[in-house]
Amino acid sequence: MSFRIISLVFVAIVLTACQSGIQGKLNSSLKEKLTERIDSYLDAHHSNGQFNGSLLIMKGDLLLYSRSIGWANREFQMAHTDSTRFLIGSITKPFTAMAILLLEKEGKLSLNDPLSSYFPSFPRSHEVTVQQLLTHTSGIKDYHSLPDWREKGRQNRNPLKTVEDVSIDPYLFNPGAGFRYSNTGYILLGLIVEKVSGLSFESFIQQAILNPLHLKNTGIITNEKIVPHLANGYSSNPRETLKAEYIHYSQAFSSGNMYSTPQDLFLFCKAVMGSHLLDSQKTNAIFKISEVYGYGWGICNYAGSRAYSHHGGMNGYVGSMTFIPEGEYFICFLTNDDNTPKYRMAEDLASLVLGKDVENPHPTPLIPLTEEMKTLAIGSYLLKPGDTLHIYEQAGSLFMKETGQESHELFPYKEDGYSLSLLEFRVIFSDNQAKIAQSLILDGKTKTEALRLP
User: Fold this and answer.
1) Residue 383 burial (CB < 10 Å; 0-12/13-18/19+)?
2) Whole-angstrom Cα distance, residue 50 to residue 340?
3) Model-level pTM?
4) Which one of 29-43, 136-150, 368-382 scores highest in mean pLDDT?
5) Which residue of 92, 103, 395, 442 has the fewest C-beta atoms within 10 A of its own C-beta?
6) pLDDT tens, residue by residue, 23-77
7) Beta strand pairing status for 329-335 and 53-59?
8) Which residues contact residue 139 at a Cβ distance below 8 angstroms, ignoring those fewer than 6 apart?
9) E strands along 366-422, which residues?
10) Which domains does the chain have, with CATH numbers?
């Protein structure tokens, strides 16, 4: 080899090393700026009493951000760590969907199977398919629409009883004719897993998913089980923080009965996206079957980029898991306070990671509720035919109750403005006539107006 060729090779190596070094410094600089910006954003939510938990952000296998903030146990002031476990609520659904897809892979069921193959006594079950249950297009009502679901949620109930309660009047629309999120549908899927596999839902999830992926901090929760490093659940509002309302986890069953950590959810997400459990064709189908909700994953758009996500909530816990294919970003936060604005935070964090800036949350100081404010607000407001918002007073406070839904306290921050601690919007009363509001505006990501009924 000539001296000239050796020299050229040497120069190329040096230039490559220099470029690599420069790129490394640029990546380090960008990571430092991102860390500083997310720290500021997270601190603002924590100061407002709206974030108490752990956040993990990855780009491929590169760690971009990891932080735990607040108390896992407020009574003993035990801080969160990266090993703290949280209940994940509906983030259970991607696991339930994967269980169904694994049984399909084994040839033990088909996504085209009618529900009647497993629950022949369920009304119109011959019209519903397993695929419709997976994609929330079955039309079957969510059990949360039952007027006594909170009372029954305190009881140790076989999930078959929940299905039986819903079956009395089960459909919002004809199967396949629309989309409506349904926890009942995912309870049915968990029961199908048990019928087809011959195992309990917990055993199948453990053997088919958790063990192969080495998810050692993930499992099924029960009220009797002692789970090391599990955070206690709390409920905050602008006035105070309380222990979360008691619930028996048997009610949620396969629609939301798991616990995990952000690190384990990253490993699960990586396995799903990398086709470690299914072939690539079936993996692609998870996210292409619908533009709204695939097989256990929501399809959304964050800052102009397609994203796959799922949010979760359980009494005292809130979480979110998002994967953005463009850049292979994984964003996950889990908290043990159900006052966390999960939808806003998921979108804001995605925007920050994608280079967009967002506004930090501001504190909302409360003001005293006066008789004039009560007179202004109390009444009924029509959202749409058959759907009314009722504003009423109870024990000196104002509450809002939507038709068929539970009540939420309104916390006043100005004479005609209120915040809702567990819902991500504010309530504004406007068009005042004779000191009585004629309209109510739900002001959140979008604005919705309801007019006062006579």
Assistant:
1) middle
2) 5
3) 0.88
4) 368-382
5) 395
6) 444 467 678 889 999 999 999 999 989 999 999 999 999 999 999 999 999 999 9
7) antiparallel
8) 128, 132, 171, 172, 173, 174, 175, 176, 177, 178, 180
9) 379-384, 387-394, 397-402, 407-414, 417-419
10) 86-353 (3.40.710.10), 371-452 (2.40.128.50)
